[in-house]
Amino acid sequence: xxxxxxxxxxxxxxxxLTLAWILVIRNRLWQVWLGxxxxxxxxxxxxxxxLSLREGWRPAVEARGRRDGVRLRIAWSGGTRPxxxxxxxxxxxxxxxxxxxPDASLETIRARxxxxxxxxxx
Length: 122
Known about the structure:
3 helices; 5 strands
């Protein structure tokens, strides 16, 4: 093997690792910012609906859990897309999703969860 080929491969791997770390740091900064910006609503939703906060790889603050046999996921999303709250419910293979404004209140989110849950009963 040629030494320049090995160096090229190593530089390529180093560039990919650097890019991955930049994306991880960017997403983590978004999570911190979203967590601080919407802390009151996030804490209220977590406490009221009995969910747990999860840190993931995306630029979002997620609360997940189960309620009345339905998997519930509420995410405050940021990043390059418009900021929003995504409410997702899943039972078996059926799922429902709603997108709300990022400053949605606890009452608005709870009402949307109840509306989406009602769709599973029919």
